[in-house]
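Human:
If only I could read backbone structure tokens as easily as an amino acid sequence. I am handing you a single protein, as its sequence and its fold in token form. I hope you can help me see how the letters and the tokens relate. Thank you; the sequence and its tokens follow:
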Amino acid sequence: MAVHELRIAPLPIWLDAGRLLGPAGPASDPGDASRGWHLEPQPDASVVARAQLDGARAADLAARLRGLGFEGQPLVCEIQPPLRRSQVRRARTEDARRRRVGTPGFSRAGTRLDEVGRMSLTPELLAMEVAELAAGRPVVDAGCGAGGNAIAFARAGCRVHAIDQDLARLELARHNAGVYGVSDRIQFVHADARAWVAAQADPGAILFVDPPWGADWSRSGCDLASLPLLADLVPLASNYAALWAKVPPSFATAQLLEGASGDARALFGAAEGDYRRVKFVLVRRG
């Protein structure tokens, strides 16, 4: 069985590389479980990952990582010797099959979503993971959409202002909050989030922004210019206790964290099809 040398770079230091890359070492190697990946920190605060994989696992990994990027840079997957075309085709077919099984959005019957919500709603399990980090502090959800994050924050004990300028989407959020029994903890605001945030300073609240990405966001590199709502709200965040942003995996987090206290956290899926996929990155500043 052929063994392939892999080099994956650049990986951000805040990423769980083991979760993303999966087990390393030849499948026949009895020490596989303990060998893992060799992670090499770089001067630019990125990480290079090296390992040996058999052809099937190397092809599977290459299919999952194809076209991805982190920190605004495309991820490069070098494999020597190169994979056979038949291995690449099989791996990409299997990857497409896995993608059909993702972490669900809302879990309760009776919730409603529009087309945008079906594409962009934060999966409930991940929304709750983010919400628990707020530790009950008040939250301003600037652009709440169908309410996935606002509802999770409310379920975690936060008081929430949920803002959206699309009245139809705001009504979806209101309805879904009723399904989850948290309407009394959310104040729904029909307004442009930029204007509302500028006028309503709250030094005790978290300003949470889930900017619209659209279907065509760049998976190899993304920056503030690609997320105009977030870019407009960043200068206003000084009137709040913290700025939290849910951004694409390829987003250049340094644009938000440079010169400020904070961190970045990759949120992976929980289902078979997205367990090793970064669904989004949570950047917390302040």
Summary: Residues 85-98 form the longest helix (14 residues). The first strand starts at residue 3 and ends at 12. Residues 42 and 286 are 26 Å apart (CA to CA). The radius of gyration is 20 Å.
